[in-house]
Amino acid sequence: MPENAAVSIKNVSKQFDNVEVLRDINLDVQKGEVISILGSSGSGKSTLLRCMNWLEQPDRGEIRISGSRIGVDDSGKHMSHRELSKVRERVGMVFQSFNLWPHLTVLQNVTEALLHVKGLKRAEANQIAHKQLEKVGMNHKADSYPITLSGGQKQRVAIARSLAMSPEVILFDEPTSALDPELVGEVLAVMKALAAEGYTMVVVTHEMDFARQVSDQVVFLEKGVLIEKAAPEKFFTNPDSERVQRFLATTR
Length: 252
Ligand code: ADP
Ligand code: MG
Known about the structure:
Strand order of the largest sheet: 6-7-8-3-9-10
Order of helices and strands: EEEHEEHEHHHEHEHEEHH
Structural class: alpha/beta
Shape: globular
Bound molecules: adenosine-5'-diphosphate, magnesium ion
Low-confidence stretches: none
CATH topology: Rossmann fold
Distance between the termini: 43 Å
CATH architecture: 3-Layer(aba) Sandwich
CATH class: Alpha Beta
Number of domains: 1
């Protein structure tokens, strides 16, 4: 039997105010794969990502994380808050706006969920947090507060916080879009290293070089429809869809 996909999305549709923002999306993310999601603003990229950890509920279709349903069980019954948070622990998310707690130090930001969601002892949580902060080059700031950090540093802390939970997949929603241009590189370098380490990642991005060099598959959304999915080589040189050809023409 083939191994379960890390994320499996089947026939997912979603409306806001009677407008269909996702239309019958099918997408599998295999373990160890990096998938970049491209598309213009309003095409449904964030909504699709947010469905993957049930921050948004699809109207139709199903989503599985390593084979197990998220949001509803196999009989269609909604999961309890507790069951849902169990599945969500396995799906990391990194936002454009970092979402660090301002009143907590860098270390405390990373240990928060380890202590209060995973229920680890403080010594163990600290050890994991220091290790992950080291990985993103931020351990020297463990005792600093977020306000003292640059945007690139904040985002690296947010990535460490996500890694600390040992997620099966990490979702990134435009992780570099809020950064000054000179800070984008340090965050992309961390993400590139994670990809090389074998992390499963779904990345909504406008960074074409990252999409091309780091992804295994590139996906293009247009008005809620997945109109192209291809390996980067094909996507960037010879896409099937005329829409993607036009999109690429505007980015060159
Ligand atoms: P993208 O991330 O590609 O820019 P989004 O997924 O954020 O696109 O949005 C897709 C569409 O859904 C847009 O038209 C947006 O205005 C709409 N939308 C997103 N979130 C909501 C919401 N919570 N309520 C109503 N409409 C929303
Ligand atoms: Mg978005």
